[in-house]
């Protein structure tokens, strides 16, 4: 059974997609960009952007009764690989006990709204 997950604690979708879809205990979270859900404004600066993206992911996980410990896969998209170290450090800080999901990080030429970082995630809960 498929369930659409939506929370006002994360930015609304900016296209024809859901924030997340839950199927048989697996949560597929759409790519999150650094939009503040309270005012809809973009956050600027790679450190602040990364924290906002992680907060958005956290809110969606919470709406599905999960947290970062349930994450099994993440995909990070960067406008510049020069930001890798900063993004990596902030990303890692959201996981307890150094239990990280599988992940890839790729540089792309452009992201929605011309942001510097976007992260999608897959999580699982029995």
TrEMBL record:
Under the heading InterPro entries, the entry gives: RidA, RutC-like_sf, YjgF/YER057c/UK114
Give the highest taxon in the source lineage: Bacteria
CDD domains registered for this protein in UniProt: YjgF_YER057c_UK114_family
Q: Name one GO molecular function term.
A: deaminase activity
Pfam family of the protein (one): Ribonuc_L-PSP
Query: GO CC terms on record?
Result: cytosol
Family that this chain belongs to: Belongs to the RutC family.
In terms of NCBIfam families, this protein maps to: Rid family detoxifying hydrolase (TIGR00004)
This chain belongs to which protein, by name?
Answer: DfrA
Species assigned in the record: Epilithonimonas lactis
């Amino acid at each position: 059974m498929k369930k659409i997950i939506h929370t006002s604690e994360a930015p609304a979708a900016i296209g024809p997609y859901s924030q997340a879809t839950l199927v048989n205990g697996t949560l597929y979270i759409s790519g999150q960009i650094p939009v503040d859900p309270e005012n809809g404004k973009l956050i600027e600066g790679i450190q602040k952007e990364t924290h906002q993206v992680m907060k958005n992911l956290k809110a969606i996980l919470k709406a599905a009764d999960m947290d970062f410990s349930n994450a099994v896969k993440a995909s990070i998209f960067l406008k510049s690989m020069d930001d890798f170290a900063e993004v990596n450090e902030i990303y890692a800080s959201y996981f307890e006990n150094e239990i990280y999901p599988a992940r890839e990080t790729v540089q792309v030429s452009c992201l929605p709204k011309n942001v510097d970082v976007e992260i999608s995630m897959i999580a699982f809960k029995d």
